Amino acid sequence: MKDFQNIVLKTQDLFIGYTSKKKENVIAGPINIVLEKGQLIGLVGTNGIGKSTLLRTLTSVQKALKGEIFINSKALVTYNPSDLAKQLSLVLTEPVASKNLSVFELVALGRQPYTNWIGNLSKEDIDITNNALQQTNIEALKSKKCFELSDGQLQKVMIARALAQETDLIILDEPTSHLDMYHKAYILKLLQKLAKETGKTILFSSHEIDLAIQLCDAMIVMTKDDVISGQPCDLIANDTFNQLFPNDLIEFDKNTGSFKVRK
Amino acid sequence: MKLDLIGFKNQLGLVCMENKYTYPFLILAVLLILFFFVNISLGSVSIPTKEIFKSLVGNIDNESWQYIIHNYRLPKAFTAILVGSGLGISGLLMQTLFRNPLAGPFVLGISSGASLGVALVILGSGFFGGIFASFLISKWSVIIAASLGSFLVLLAVMIVSSRVRDTMALLIIGLMFGSITSAAVSVLSYFSSAEQLQQYIFWGFGSLGNLSWQELLILLIIYLIGILMAMVSIKALNTLLLGENYAKSLGINLKKSRFIIIIATSLLAGTITAFAGPIAFIGLAIPHMTRQLFHTSNHKILLPAVFLFGAIVMLICDSIAQFPTSDYTLPINAITSLVGAPVVIWLLVNKRKMLF
Fold first, then answer.
1. Predicted ipTM?
2. Residue spans of alpha helices (H) in chain B
């Protein structure tokens, strides 16, 4: 039994999927995962396996078919939206609707759950916002407008916004898509640093399996039959990554920890 | 006193630290007062400026001048302020709610509903005939018909849209209802007399000058309720700038906020249309012009800025409509379109994109 205090998110026999016209369409389950404080966790799996559905279920965007999700040992369904906003922050794949916001304004929006009815920023809110800008190395961009930023910069801004929300858990949906190799590594490295320094639990989905193996404390691997979680080295030892994809084209090389094309 | 001012500034909480918005606000406020006086000093009867100021503080000897200023020009100027700011703010609400720079106060079918109501009263009065017909064409019946029409169309849009979750679908449904009502108006026009048609078209020109103090008071009360609801929504509006899913993740009750924003818009745009007719382009152009002026999308700044700017532009448009002391007053709807449409084109060509 792991230390109860350290568990930020836990699922119990969770089944995810969609209900359409009385028919339940189970995508994955049963899922039993435990996310601990200060961990960086990567969620990997092939396209359409249900990564997004799992993240949507964990973030209360859609309902679980069966089973329970606990955040800080309280059931997810019992949170009201404003309380949940203080436990869980998101970085989504969808672009920000308004590009006319300045970086500071956007990051400061992360303080919304704590501000008064009109959204006034207190001295503390401004300090926390500045701190988030500092932690993500984007202080220089502070007064730039979002339409002036590159994709990599924008992703850092969104991470800063999630930090400013001061939640125990940050969930990111494919934070590295659209980015070049350097920025993919940069963003994941940044997430690793943030998890260590701030003690937050950071869960992200990604297709960058090589990078995730190198940087994550734990990984959740979604395959057709099962959802497996564990430390990257254990997962390699158990040959879990070879179950990820159909093995006619690529195979996982245990020695290098990366995928190779079959010759 | 000085301490109080600082406290007040903190209360306003102008996001970007320095009070960089103080000057634009001061300038706009001064311009508003200036154009208010310009507006009331212009009209088909020329009255010396000195006499106008005198009449504002007390009575002047020339009774007909006094009457013109008190019962015609002043209510008209106040109407212009309410119409310009109200339509501007409802346009701002719609652009943010739909995250679409081309949305305006009438996207939900509010003006087409009002048109249908008025068309039914004016064009349909022939079917009833007699004394009943003359009652139908009275001013109040037009106002009530316009309110009812916009309310019913809005209700229909809301009922249909409760079946769809997507906000964009709501936009399209609003537009479709607009098409249906304008088709109904066409059918009604086909069976109407030339006289009735003319009356209907005159309503469509829009008019700021028809309101008595009593009517102005009713407009003001509903306007204030709408503004209050918009103010309550400031926080939700700012999170909606990120997108609906982000807004939800920040603890915003999306369903409730969307409802309040829609009701605020329909109260503002619906009542204004009922009293002053459908007035084009103000709701679309004012929020964009204000964003260019203030370089922000923060609704805490934009809401008061749009209020001031919308009121100023409407006062200017109304002044142009009766310029220069001619006997004719041009239709206000034509002026707002002549001013508004080029501005939108200029924004697109010059700034390449219409950000919101």
1. 0.91
2. 2-12, 22-41, 49-57, 63-68, 74-97, 110-128, 130-136, 139-161, 167-190, 194-205, 213-232, 234-240, 244-249, 254-276, 282-294, 299-321, 332-351
